[in-house]
Amino acid sequence: MCDRLLAAQSLHPLEVIVIDDHSSDDTAAIAHAAIAHAAGVTVLASAPLPQGWCGKTWALQQGANRSQGDLLVFLDADTEPRPTFLAQLVANHQQYGGLVSVQPFHRTEQPYEQLSVLFNLVGLMAVPLGPRVGVAFGPAMVTSRSDYGRIGGHASVAGKVVEDWFLAHRYEAAGLPVSAFLGHGSLAYRMYPGGLSDMVVGFDKNFATAAGEVRWPWMVGVLLWLLGLFWAAWCLPAAVLHWPMVGDPALAPNLLVYVGYALQLLVITRRLGTFGWINLVFPVPVLFFLGVFLLAILNLERGSINWKGRQVPTR
Fold first, then answer.
1. Most buried of 73, 270, 284, 291, CB within 10 angstroms?
2. φ and ψ at 159, to 5 degrees?
3. Tens digits of per-residue pLDDT, 90-103?
4. Nearest to 193 by CA among 294, 116, 300
5. What are the C-alpha distances in Å from 60 to residues 57, 162, 164?
6. pLDDT at position 38, please?
7. Are the C-beta atoms of 21 and 46 separated by less than 8 Å?
8. Is the whole model's pTM more than 0.70, yes or no?
9. pLDDT, averaged across the chain
10. CA angle 275, 85, 176 (to 5 degrees)
11. Region for 33 from its dihedrals, namely left if φ exceeds 0, alpha if ψ lies in -120 to 50, beta otherwise
């Protein structure tokens, strides 16, 4: 889909390079079919994964090595750019320089995908957004070739599971600005169309590493907000079902707190993704969030997790 949408861009790229990272979902076949009616598209099969590299960092480094342009744009294959996206992205890079990235709007189709609402929300609440904030989002990034070479490219974060976080650190260490924006209205994606199990493992593999990278003042703020959300998720059912609870067991005040959090979620998630009804029953994604969190702790102790047929380190 990304290839077709790139062909419709108001700003046409010099070249489009697709790296097939030993996929099992017909990536190569789909990309080769696109070549028949799209000029400037090259499809490369990824070389065997070297020791110490993650699949994504290796694929992106190969694409950068093969490219010819002075400006490099990295896009995940599942991203869905609007026709003006590339023009907006390049304009932002011209204005801010360094590394500029965009977090796509999360498009959901199946009910299970709604369970990811808290992961999307918490992940963005825990970081600043805007110009020169020191945060990067891997699905869509742009940088000059000279700056990319200056920080050592993806080779400098070869073994990192959440390579975007560490790539941002490399740019900052080199004295280069790092800017991040939301993709609402310009870039979207559907994160885990492969089913609930893929979604659980996908969030699980990023959870522990990403949490360790969040600046502590932001982490404290997010944790306090989550405590309030968890409390609201518990108190209304406890009041209705007469479960043991600390605080006022009366229904009215607990219902008021519950409705307040539900309305807050409805408002603040509108720019993040197509999350609607799940916000009205937020105790359900709260339980899902806590379950994946506990699973992430277990996998952190194990030291690795299986993702897309590969063992991915969690430390």
1. 73
2. -100, 10
3. 999 999 999 999 99
4. 116
5. 5, 13, 12
6. 57
7. yes
8. yes
9. 87
10. 100
11. alpha
